[in-house]
Each structure stands twice: as structure tokens, then as C-alpha cells.
């Protein structure tokens, strides 16, 4: 059974998808803890499913590195097999990435390497893209530059607003994340091999 620690910053829809999946006895992974860098609304999902949670606020620390050290200490308390950044909107300090890689993954609402960063959906629309999508990737020290585990395309429809497109992306993102975690748990995806590409 693969143990998961999920990091969030917002509403936690990807977290909820993992919590619902892992409540099925046939799913080969379990969420053991949830962490956040804000007083995120999504922490309510952890509470509902009786999963322990913690918050490490960057504003409580003198430096990004000090914040990262505390975040890593909180993660290490749980010794998870896999850390999943699911809507975690902060770039991790290099020391955190080095300590956890390659067992730390992220979802991104675009077909990387296209449209990295925090405004991927808006950027895809601004560029006139006809397709975008979802990527699940291993986190490295760059911004959305880590090795790709899996991707799925989504059509950009005529007249799409950022909100409409993002909502369609989120549906696929949840499905793809749940499947990617299953594939990792079942050995169909080797993170070390993926990271070495």
C-alpha cells in the first residue's frame, strides 16, 4: 500500500479525488496526512475523512529556506512513500526537492513544457491554443520543468472563458492524478526511471 502525503494551497478538489479513491479498499494507495502553506479551504476535506493535517505558513519564517526546512520536517514525520502537490501554489526550496525527489509529483493544467507557471489556462487562451491539457510530472528544482509521467489533451472550445476551460481541465486533472498514483503504486510507473529521462 502506497502512503501519500498531499500538499495543497486552495480548495483541495484534487485532494478530495485522492481521498475518495483511497477510501475504496481496492485502491492501492492511502492518504496519511495533508499539508498546506495557507489556511486552505481544502483542509476541510482532510477533516471530513479524518486525515491529520498541518499548516506551515511562509510568513512565520525569516526566509524561504527556513520555511522549507520546517515543511520538510513536517513531511518527514509521516515518512510518506509519495508526496503529491495537488494545487500547491508555492515553489519548493531546492533543499526540499532534493530531499524528496523523485518521490514528489505535481499536477499542472497544461501540456508541459507549454504554459508553465501559475497562469497556465490564461496563457493558453492568450496564445490562441486550440488544445491544452493536464500533466502529471515529477517535481524538480525548476518551475514545472520536471519529467512528465502522463499527459492528457483537452480541446479549447471557441469562446471558452478562463473559468470554463479551467473547470473542464480540473475534471480531467482529478482523473489523471488518481490514475497516475495508482500506476505508481502498482509499479507501472517507476519514478526513478522517469526522473532519469
Automatic annotation (TrEMBL):
<keyword id="KW-0808">Transferase</keyword>
<dbReference type="Pfam" id="PF00551">
    <property type="entry name" value="Formyl_trans_N"/>
</dbReference>
<feature type="binding site">
    <location>
        <position position="106"/>
    </location>
    <ligand>
        <name>(6R)-10-formyltetrahydrofolate</name>
    </ligand>
</feature>
<feature type="binding site">
    <location>
        <position position="64"/>
    </location>
    <ligand>
        <name>(6R)-10-formyltetrahydrofolate</name>
    </ligand>
</feature>
<feature type="site" description="Raises pKa of active site His">
    <location>
        <position position="144"/>
    </location>
</feature>
<dbReference type="GO" id="GO:0006189">
    <property type="term" value="P:'de novo' IMP biosynthetic process"/>
</dbReference>
<protein>
    <recommendedName>
        <fullName>Phosphoribosylglycinamide formyltransferase</fullName>
        <ecNumber>2.1.2.2</ecNumber>
    </recommendedName>
</protein>
<feature type="domain" description="Formyl transferase N-terminal">
    <location>
        <begin position="4"/>
        <end position="181"/>
    </location>
</feature>
<feature type="binding site">
    <location>
        <begin position="89"/>
        <end position="92"/>
    </location>
    <ligand>
        <name>(6R)-10-formyltetrahydrofolate</name>
    </ligand>
</feature>
<feature type="binding site">
    <location>
        <begin position="12"/>
        <end position="14"/>
    </location>
    <ligand>
        <name>N(1)-(5-phospho-beta-D-ribosyl)glycinamide</name>
    </ligand>
</feature>
<keyword id="KW-0658">Purine biosynthesis</keyword>
<dbReference type="InterPro" id="IPR036477">
    <property type="entry name" value="Formyl_transf_N_sf"/>
</dbReference>
<comment type="function">
    <text>Catalyzes the transfer of a formyl group from 10-formyltetrahydrofolate to 5-phospho-ribosyl-glycinamide (GAR), producing 5-phospho-ribosyl-N-formylglycinamide (FGAR) and tetrahydrofolate.</text>
</comment>
<dbReference type="InterPro" id="IPR004607">
    <property type="entry name" value="GART"/>
</dbReference>
<dbReference type="GO" id="GO:0004644">
    <property type="term" value="F:phosphoribosylglycinamide formyltransferase activity"/>
</dbReference>
<comment type="similarity">
    <text>Belongs to the GART family.</text>
</comment>
<dbReference type="InterPro" id="IPR002376">
    <property type="entry name" value="Formyl_transf_N"/>
</dbReference>
<comment type="pathway">
    <text>Purine metabolism; IMP biosynthesis via de novo pathway; N(2)-formyl-N(1)-(5-phospho-D-ribosyl)glycinamide from N(1)-(5-phospho-D-ribosyl)glycinamide (10-formyl THF route): step 1/1.</text>
</comment>
<feature type="active site" description="Proton donor">
    <location>
        <position position="108"/>
    </location>
</feature>
<dbReference type="GO" id="GO:0005829">
    <property type="term" value="C:cytosol"/>
</dbReference>
